[in-house]
Design a protein that fits this description.
With 705 residues, the protein is α/β, with parallel strands linked by helices. It has 26 helices and 24 strands. The structure holds adenosine-5'-diphosphate and magnesium ion. The site of magnesium ion has 4 residues, from helix 11.
Length: 705
């Protein structure tokens, strides 16, 4: 038995389905080309079908030369009037064509003698390109062109022309040819339809086969606008399928974890009840609800995997302290990990104070600790005499050996991705099972994004601030009004309040950032001689920084000049004024975090966003959002819309899946439907497996369905 592939090449039919054959099964694809295509993550024929065009060109109409518009890519035809080589700085070939309605100049910088010889006057040619209005009329630089023979225009097409993602050494023409071959194969061997019919019918979506044909070769008259915006039903159908595959993979991880063992910590203990009763404040109802959810999880013999979301200042830490205490009450260990030393220190301080009445002293572990102190901590962690350990990621280095770790609390979750989460979990594993995990994020994540990115975690939301908090009044002022702002700082401090002055974020250079902070410090010191001005930045030794922070906390410093190190965790209730320099350089969520350092006490607090002019459109929108709302969820939603999920979750290592066709910012609205569809698959894991294989590059990692 043999099968005919593409245009006539014969390959043995030992493939069950030619779509899963290697690309070399296609006409004109040898090992060299296959290697280049691999850069686009293309391995088998089916992969080509899922590599969707980036955009489409309309070559269904031939435009008259007189109708050409600057910048609008067009297909035209005309007769060569003249072709000449000119030297104006650079050797180039100019070809003038005309069609009675107007004329057009084609300009080539790279050309062969043979090419030049083609352009004999009187020859009819067609070309496709972007016309630009030049000194001597319309011009196209290096258009795609062909000779017209027997009135046949080889560039014209009945359907829109797809433009594929480019990779070096594979011209568009070749990509189109390969996609066409794959489509031809698909028409004989339709790919498996993995979406349940009920869902497709409900959403009125086409079949996979129809969607793919349409997207690779949209007919004339297709809604190009919808296609460009990714809103076409054919696209949405694929997007949905991809989001569903990723969602199922995360849920699957979640399910696997629910089969792992973890220490069951029993029902709420008396010590926890006493702790809550003796706190200097009453828990908000949101804090109580979330604590109950956590204690419930901890009672189970499987690892908790829970994310707490709560706006800055909503009081996540005390909830973590309750969770840890439940483990400690059972004679086990709890660890709290923060991404920076400063934040870890802040937690250490809070826990120390809260646990003092209980006679529990937290143990500190960080990378910068002196060797002797570290040895001591490590010994206490290993022999179990340390019940609560607070630190940075040093906590999860090889040398740390917990005796009985029952729970890990990770603050600032958004800096860790799913892979890191898995690694952490493995690290904490012990004979009695895995530790429970509680992750806390200070960046509220829009619901749809959370669903897509954190489907392996259960989520609790602290959606209430402690009583008495007032909305922070926010204004944006140009840098030119700096003097007024300095006056404002003076007045606030004369009234006995304190202020933060945050210096520009300079991502490119820590050195420059530090210099900027020094400069502001010097300038403010001079402008406000009667006030006590302090400075903290990332370069200070821990002890020096602590000294400054402590002084600020005790009210011995009026104005704290700081780099963005104060972004997270710092908690000084008497500080009521926040100035942020060069606010236009910062992301929305970061600004919201910084602003959240004030408004913690009973005084009305203010935030001044100083910006340098001119202000770009994006920066302007960002600052406007902060002026309009104090709600972290709204801020995050706007941040998502303005910058996309990668930026929102902390740029580099978001741990977000790499999607092929989906874009969370655009397609997040599908998540509730994805979640619903996933229920259908939960009961039928055999249906999920092929979906994961189709869409996930490292399906194996998640794929133990
Ligand atoms: P975040 O959620 O930003 O991490 P924190 O846990 O740092 O917030 O809490 C912010 C401040 O609010 C801390 O000073 C904390 O002691 C205080 N706090 C927490 N819960 C309450 C409450 N229920 N009532 C009053 N103050 C609270
Ligand atoms: Mg916090």
């Amino acid at each position: 038995m043999h099968q005919v592939l593409g245009s006539g090449r014969i390959v043995p039919s030992n493939f069950e389905n030619p779509l899963s054959a290697s690309l070399t099964a296609l006409n004109g694809v040898g090992p060299a080309l296959a290697k280049k295509l691999a850069r686009l993550r293309l391995a088998c024929v089916e992969d080509l079908l899922f590599l969707l065009p980036l955009r489409y060109e309309d070559r269904t109409q031939i435009l008259r030369l007189g109708e050409l518009q600057h910048g609008a890519r067009s297909l035209v035809c005309g007769e060569v009037q003249l072709a000449e080589t000119v030297y104006r700085g650079r050797r180039s070939l100019l070809v003038r064509i005309a069609d009675g309605s107007g004329q057009l100049t084609l300009r080539f910088f790279y050309f062969s003698a043979a090419q030049q010889a083609q352009f004999k006057p009187g020859t009819e040619i067609c070309c496709y390109g972007e016309p630009r209005a030049g000194k001597s009329g319309m011009e196209m630089v290096h258009p795609e062109y062909r000779i017209v023979r027997d009135g046949h225009n080889p560039l014209a097409s009945d359907s829109l022309t797809p433009v594929y993602p480019a990779t070096e050494g594979v011209p568009q023409g070749r990509m189109r040819n390969l996609a066409a071959q794959a489509l031809a194969l698909m028409s004989q061997h339709p790919p498996a339809e993995l979406l349940p019919a009920a869902i497709r019918e409900e959403l009125k979506w086409p079949s996979l086969q129809d969607a793919l044909s349409y997207l690779h070769q949209p007919p004339t008259g297709a809604d190009l606008e919808a296609l460009a915006a990714g809103r076409h039903p054919c696209q949405q159908r694929l997007v949905f399928e991809e989001l569903l595959a990723h969602y199922l993979s995360l849920r699957n991880l979640r399910r696997l974890a629910s089969r792992e063992k973890a220490p069951s910590l029993g029902k709420s203990t008396e010590i926890v009840a006493r702790f809550i009763a003796e706190l200097p404040f009453t828990l908000t109802s949101a804090q109580s609800r979330v604590s109950a959810e956590i204690l419930d999880d901890l009672n189970r013999p499987h690892p908790m995997m829970r994310l707490i979301q709560g706006d800055v200042g909503s009081g996540k830490t005390v909830v973590a302290a309750i969770a840890c205490l439940q483990a400690i009450a059972r004679g086990m260990q709890a660890a709290v990990m923060a991404p920076t030393e400063l934040l870890a220190e802040q937690h250490l301080a809070s826990f120390t104070e809260w646990y003092r009445p209980l006679g529990i002293e937290p143990c500190w572990l960080s990378g910068s600790q002196r060797a002797a102190a570290k040895r001591e901590s490590l010994a206490a962690i290993a022999d179990g005499s340390a019940a609560l350990i607070v630190g940075t990621h040093a906590l999860f280095q090889e040398t740390v050996d917990f005796k009985q770790l029952a729970i890990i609390v990770i603050d600032e979750q958004h800096r860790f991705g799913v892979h890191q989460r898995m690694a952490l979990r493995d690290k904490g594993a012990a004979a009695f099972g895995q530790p429970h995990q509680l992750v806390m994020t200070a960046t509220p994540i829009p619901r749809t994004l959370a669903m897509a990115a954190y489907a392996d975690l259960d989520t609790s939301i602290i959606d209430e601030l402690p009583p008495g908090r007032q909305a922070i009044g926010t204004v944006a002022l140009p840098e030119t009004r700096r003097d007024e702002v300095v006056e404002r700082v003076r007045k606030a401090c004369q009234r006995g309040q304190q202020a933060y002055w945050v210096c520009p974020l300079i991502e490119e250079s820590e050195q420059l950032e530090y210099q900027a902070a020094e400069a502001s410090f010097a300038q403010l010191g001079k402008a406000l001689p009667e006030l006590r001005v302090g400075l903290v930045h990332g370069r200070l030794k821990t002890a020096d920084r602590d000294a400054v922070m402590d002084a600020f906390k005790r009210g011995e410093i009026d104005v704290l000049v700081a780099t963005t190190v104060v972004e997270v965790g710092v908690d000084v209730a008497n500080a009521s004024l926040m100035i942020i320099e060069n606010a236009e350089r910062m992301g929305l969520s970061q600004l919201h975090q910084l602003r959240g350092r004030v408004g913690r006490g009973r005084t009305q607090s203010h935030c001044v966003l100083l910006y340098r002019q001119p202000l770009g459109q994006l920066a302007r929108s960002r600052l406007a959002v902060l002026r309009e709302t104090n709600d972290g969820f709204v801020v995050a939603q706007r941040d998502l819309e303005l910058r996309g999920p990668g930026e929102l979750l902390g740029t580099r290592q978001t741990g977000l899946p790499q999607y092929r066709v989906a874009e969370l910012t655009r397609d997040g609205h599908l998540m509730p439907k994805v979640q619903k569809a996933a229920e259908h698959f939960a009961k039928r894991p055999e249906l999920a497996a092929p979906l994961l294989r189709r869409w996930l590059n490292d399906a194996d990692r998640y794929g133990k369905v």
